Amino acid sequence: MTPIPNLNIVPFVSVDHMMKLVVKIGIETVLTDLAAYIEEDIKRWESFDKTPRIAAHSVDGVIELMPASDGSLYAFKYVNGHPKNTREGRQTVTAFGLLADVGTGYPTLLSEMTILTALRTAATSAVVAKYLAPKGADCMAVIGNGAQSEFQAIAFKALLGVKKLRLYDVDHAATEKCMRNLAGLGFDLVPCTTIEDAVQGAAIVTTATADKQNATILTDNMVGAGIHINAIGGDCPGKTELHRDILLRSDIFVEYTPQTRIEGEIQQLPKNHRVTELWQVMTGQAEGRKSARQITLFDSVGFAIEDFSALRYVRDQLQRTRLYQELDLLADPDDPRDLFGMIQRSTANLAVA
């Protein structure tokens, strides 16, 4: 599908367009529809070219490229992770992405992905929880109340009916911000002063912290039988949130094992420790939740196919929303072999003007 007829003009979705798209469609609808795109693509996992993301690490953070292709479409995302940015009034994570036609190599969409990454991360968490969380779970602890927390809460409400939230952050101002943003959206909100308090009575625990270091956000004594842990904060080498003993008690589910071994919670474990990839659960080739007392752990690091799905979803909304601008990104000479002549004609036109 091409949203505009001129193949040499690329639609560009700006931050402003993305915000308007979410408002126009409705955030719960966006998250539900986006989850469906992600689930559809994960179920055809074996049709994708896959590779761990290409990362450039520094003392300040990381810059990554995340490519994926299903043979017809190609996508990549540029994304960074710089925890110190918040001290300077900047986002920890920023991103943009591109969708292209494999047959021609021409890009068909360029989009902001700072907001879109937050949406796809939350949608992925919730669609995974459909397979792994205890049936009827309606209470979730959210440890880390920064930029991702509201998206996670709304996604779990939209897809699983979770309405009770127990919130904790080392910075109480972050919890207050989260509560303000979620007020009036149908949640029962409980601010907590400790992590131990936050996890009490929660069937789902989401950890979403930002520090680039080995941390122990959850200790083994905090995790009771039967819960689902949605661990989304660990996403680069040397950065974890869970005590190793929790991993040893849990059935662990991952997106793409070669990437998660490098970046996820399981970097704390031997390379041969058993994990299950989500596509196997979603296609019925492996079991997800098997018992009421089972501890399930989604060791989420974010994978390029989720971004592929997100860009595909945005592309499919453009014709009806018209929320994009036309970007003159591709050269269009009269003769495809005469790029230099195109420059000469442009020079002549400028001289006449």
TrEMBL record:
Coiled coil: none annotated. Pfam families: OCD_Mu_crystall. InterPro entries: NAD(P)-bd_dom_sf (IPR036291), ODC_Mu_crystall (IPR003462), ODC_N (IPR023401). It comes from the Bacteria. PANTHER family: KETIMINE REDUCTASE MU-CRYSTALLIN. This is Ornithine cyclodeaminase. It comes from Acidiphilium iwatense. The lineage of its organism: Bacteria, Pseudomonadati, Pseudomonadota, Alphaproteobacteria, Acetobacterales.
